[in-house]
Structure formats: C-alpha cells, structure tokens
Write a structure and sequence with these properties.
Blueprint (H helix, E strand, L loop, with lengths): L26 H4 L17 E2 L3 E2 L5 E2 L2 E2 L1 H18 L1 H5 L4 H12 L3
Antiparallel strand pairs: 1-4, 2-3
Helix pairs in contact: 2-4
The structure holds zinc ion (ZN) (2 copies).
C-alpha cells in the first residue's frame, strides 16, 4: 500500500485558479482591481482571491475575480484536479476540492 503525502494544496485556503494567458492581463488585472477573466471592476465585497503567483517579469501577480468568473474557474480547476489527485480518490475532504466547491457555490453555478 502506498503512502501519499503529496502537498497539492496550499494551507491558506486560497486556490491558485487557472487564469487567462498572462499576456492578456493589464496592470489593473495584475493587482486585482479588475476581474482577471471578464474585466469587471471589483469591489472588496465581491472580489475573490485567485491566488498570488510570480509574474514573468520577476514581480508578483495578485489576481482576483468576480464571484461568477471565479466559480467557473474553480469548476475547471476541479475537473482537472480531481482525476489527478490521490486525496480526492479516497476522500471527499481534499482541501483543494473543498475550496473549489465552495467557490463554485459562491459563484451561483
Ligand atoms: Zn468576472
Ligand atoms: Zn484533491
């Protein structure tokens, strides 16, 4: 029997959601002022953290999205994640899957 201790999930609960191509993202997208997917102006209230990540220029991206787009992205992430995740295969308590399902619900999908 195989022990699986692969750290596939971040402990912060923030999912690094799949983004559009980085070249498509403006400054406002990169600092989270606008939705990374649909470019809607975001208020602190509705913004969903899409996961900080390194930028191609050595800086950092702080992408955010509106609830609906983040829900769609989380759905896509879950579709890719679940078949490849050893935790999801044996349990419904995978933190990545739990976080994705929460975002999908919040997006009203
Ligand atoms: Zn959006
Ligand atoms: Zn998983």
């Amino acid at each position: 029997m195989a022990e699986t201790t692969q750290p596939t999930c971040t402990p912060t609960g923030v999912l690094p959601l799949p983004l559009p191509a980085l070249g498509m993202l403006s400054d406002a997208h990169r600092r989270g002022a606008r939705c990374a997917w649909c470019s809607a102006q975001l208020t602190a209230d509705e913004a969903v953290d899409a996961g900080e990540r390194p930028a191609e220029d050595g800086g950092h991206l702080f992408p955010r999205g509106c609830r609906r787009c983040a829900g769609v992205a989380a759905y896509r992430l879950l579709q890719q994640h679940a078949p490849a995740c050893d935790v999801c295969k044996v349990s419904a308590a995978c933190p990545t899957a739990v976080a994705a399902v929460r975002l999908i619900r919040e997006g009203g999908l």
